[in-house]
């Protein structure tokens, strides 16, 4: 069994073998990884209308608890806005107003507006992933994601998904594993 079997009925290939299935920032980030780590990342093409987690899992037989959702959060204090990405299992929700707000040292934290998230990441909505985010952004990873044998995440575009070990997610640039992030 490989980490890619979490993709259900989909056939995965090494992600770097199919750059056409990756967002530009994702392809660049994967090329920057140690080759042994990059080889742990699989990609599979999907119907872009099935990119949303519930529809994806139902259509392709991928377990809901094997999918991790990446959300972009904006934290504000005064005139300053700080961004972070949160990665939690699809069966949970990110503790935006508690742990994330405190980590960003913000008075208020909320999901970033879709247009902002897309513009800042250079990724398609529904395909935003912790791989290839802007430099300096914290990538807050729930412990359940880091402990998972494998997770399905976005690829930067809506027409594919990535599969990789949770421990690799926890080692991505900017990653911080946080207990209780997903509730």
TrEMBL record:
CDD domains: PA2301. It holds the Pfam family tRNA_edit. Residues 48-168 form the YbaK/aminoacyl-tRNA synthetase-associated domain. It comes from the Bacteria. This is YbaK/EbsC family protein. It comes from Pseudonocardia aurantiaca.
